[in-house]
């Protein structure tokens, strides 16, 4: 019994002294986006290149090209929510990237 109690005391002491680690979920897709979301750092949908668009979470080469194709065929984006009219971009994708884009 003494060994059990002393073992528990040692474990408790170690737990108290151990630094607290605040782990954030590692979302590999969003890990590369440590930038803030203020207006100066957002990508303008009406002038963005393929290279800029593929830096957005979940946007690869084909979606970036689809965004540019839509822009060329329909005209400039009037609002970010208009992205859902681009083939391959739905509400879920919009929610992922809306903080990283803007329309000027």
| CATH fold-level topology | DNA polymerase, domain 1
Distance between the termini: 72 Å
User: What can be said about the biggest beta sheet?
Assistant: 2 strands, parallel
Any idea what the CATH architecture is?
Orthogonal Bundle
The structural class is mainly alpha
Treating each run of at least 4 consecutive H or I residues as one helix, how many helices?
A: 4
Mean pLDDT: 80
Radius of gyration: 23 Å
Question: From N to C, what is the helix and strand string?
Answer: HEHHHE
Domain module count: 1
The fourth-level CATH homologous superfamily is Photosystem II 12 kDa extrinsic protein
Stretches with pLDDT under 50, minimum 5 residues: 21-38
CATH class type: Mainly Alpha
Shape: elongated
Number of strands: 2
Helical proportion, percent range: 25-40%
> How large a portion of the residues is in β-strands, by DSSP E?
under 5%
Strand order of the largest sheet: 1-2
Overall description:
The protein has 104 residues and is mostly helical. It has a single domain (2-102), classed as Photosystem II 12 kDa extrinsic protein (DNA polymerase, domain 1, Orthogonal Bundle). Helices cover 39% and strands 4% of the residues. It has four helices and two strands, in the order αβαααβ. It has helices at 2-17, 50-53, 61-74, 91-97; strands spanning 43-44, 101-102. The chain has a two-stranded parallel sheet. The radius of gyration is 23 Å and the shape is elongated. Mean pLDDT is 80; it is low at 21-38.
